[in-house]
Amino acid sequence: MHFDFKKNYRIDIRLIKRGNQAFWYGLLLLGLLLAPAVLPKYFVAQMTFILIYSVIGAGLVVLTGVTGLVSLGHAAFVAVGAYAQAILMARGVPLLVSLALSGALAAMLGLVVGLPALRLRGLYLAIATFSFGFIVEILVSHWESMTGGNSGLSVPTPTLWGVAVTGALFYYLCLVVLVLCLLLVLNVLRSPTGRALRAIRDSEVSAQSMGVNLALLKTYSFVLSAALAGLGGALYAHVMTYLSPEQFGLNLSIELLMMVVIGGVVWLQGAVLGAVFVIALPQAIAVIKDYLPPAIGQQTGLQPIVFGLVILFFVLVEPTGLYGRWIKVRTYLELFPLCPGSVFVRERHFLRTERLK
Amino acid sequence: MTLLRAEHLTVRFGGLVAVKDVSFSVESGQIFCIIGPNGAGKTTLFNLFSRIYAPSAGRMLLDGVDFTTLPPHRIAQLGIARTFQNLELFDHATVLENLLVGRHRFRRHGFLAETGFDQVVWQAELESRRAVENIIDFLDLHRFRDTRVGALPYGVRKVIELGRALCSQPRLLLLDEPSSGLNAEESEDIGYWILDIKRHFGITVLMIEHDMRLMGQVSDRVLALNEGSVLAEGSVQEVQSHPQVIEAYLGVQA
Ligand SMILES: Nc1ncnc2c1ncn2[C@@H]1O[C@H](COP(=O)(O)OP(=O)(O)O)[C@@H](O)[C@H]1O
Ligand SMILES: [Mg+2]
Fold this sequence. Notes:
Chain A is mostly helical. Chain A has a domain at 32-276: ABC transporter involved in vitamin B12 uptake, BtuC (Orthogonal Bundle), CATH 1.10.3470. Chain A contains 16 helices and 4 strands. Chain A has a two-stranded antiparallel ribbon with strand order 1-4. In chain A, strands 2-3 form a two-stranded antiparallel ribbon. In chain A, α3 runs parallel beside α8 and α5 (95-117) crosses α11 (214-240). By secondary structure, chain B is of the alpha/beta class. Chain B folds into 2 domains: 1-79 and 170-254, 3-Layer(aba) Sandwich (Rossmann fold); 90-167, no CATH class. In chain B, 39% of the residues lie in helices and 24% in strands. Chain B contains 10 helices and 10 strands. Chain B has helices spanning 42-49, 75-78, 95-101, 111-116, 119-139, 154-167, 184-201, 212-218, 236-240, 243-250; strands spanning 2-13, 16-27, 31-35, 57-62, 65-66, 80-82, 172-176, 204-208, 221-226, 229-234. A 6-stranded mixed beta sheet of chain B has the order 6-7-8-3-9-10, sandwiched between helices. A 4-stranded antiparallel beta sheet of chain B has the order 2-1-4-5, covered by helices on one side. Classes of the chains: A mainly alpha, B alpha/beta. Chains A and B meet through α1, α8, α9 and α10 of A and α2, α3, α4 and α5 of B. Adenosine-5'-diphosphate is lined by residues 13, 16, 18, 36, 38-44 of chain B.
């Protein structure tokens, strides 16, 4: 058990709040840095995927978990980032510049989508973003001169100062991008803007009456989220090496949304945990398959079913996701044996009929 | 000096006229109380002042500045803060965070500065925190500082909403039934706080109140509404003894 003695206000604002946090995150970073040296190539490739998904997930956490806006069209931002990256690189734009441009292009699209989406909420927003994702998918498959249409588009090998950035090097590039993105988002979340976004999620009327410009901040949330998705997409293009429109359909949007819900949609850590889960699960299923009776193991569609069950489990039983569960376990261990069961009882919610009357 | 001025305000919802040609003025430094039976249009008036609704006719001025068509998020900037009859808190955030949102109108830096969290942002955050801690001291909320608001009892949540409005350092504070749902002891506390808000912070208070005792304890001036129109305006005694007010409340001819 520990106590926090807060001696000044800075402690509450700092990113690292306790010494042991610095230790564990430092250890994690060290592990990630050493990974390519000790792990087989295949693992490093999978971890690269996790890093990329985490970048995209961080954006979804901002939009969905923090601001409370659901997007079923996030694959479109990923697609724009990925195609922009492929097209820019093919025209000789340097790697880092084209990464930034791809993210910026997706951000601009986020602005275009964010503005009309301002008046929508919940299911209506989900439908609107879904349609947007669909439109982008169709545009990509029909704009053949740029995107290669349904026959696809190959992505040039990235180079930085004349060195081909592949394998372990590309893994490090993704790691740097992820760390920078997480720091940026953490800064936003601890600033007045972050608080305003959470305020919008919980009560739009009172956020507004405290001076929060709903239109501006919701748009900002869309733009930031789209930029991260675009940046993730740009990195994704290099892992895929070959792009085609169906990679960026509704499936991907749902997979991304599932990822953050499973991980714990209100925490950035949740985005990363969710990414680990979404990448690791198909591998786990592939391994387990061989041990299952053939009637089950050889079924087609085993993976979507398992995914569906997992998401159902989280929505019904653990809406705070993996990270929420971890926080509970950690609290329990820290307080042991003084922890009464009532600590984990879900909060009561007050009825909110007649909100303004 | 007149702080708030409502001139011939009218609000229609379809066929229903919720507020009918209401005019009044709140003097600076006053505690001004609006009373009236349920459905009289009191909350609708507040929603006009916070620009959630637009009046069908009439205009409103704060310190001579017409804000009838100001966008709702600019109202805080103008110096008006409010609480809600049925609590509109940020349930998933801590008490501290809720109060800090009250400081949003003092945000001076842009999005870019925030992504880097530079010194300017740091200083602004520390300053916000100091201001919020003053309100925490004032309302005695230390125990709950890091608790999630959704988990707190109703009485405390009510105080937090008051605190959040105070954090924006308003010139005019709108309180919608500050004592509803509270027990006698809690509503007595609220009464003292309202008086202190006027005395120590010099904030003008416009409040809606059902509890006649609390109303009598704090009000400098009272306005009685019924079915959207003004019945009477004056001191506590004048309004309480007004025959039409008694009739509206008791439903009998006085
Ligand atoms: N948004 C709305 N749409 C339609 N009718 C409304 C709306 N808001 C309030 N009303 C009606 O206006 C009248 C006054 O309501 P209100 O101002 O909430 O009364 P109170 O004095 O009890 O606060 C009521 O009849 C209410 O039903
Ligand atoms: Mg009311």
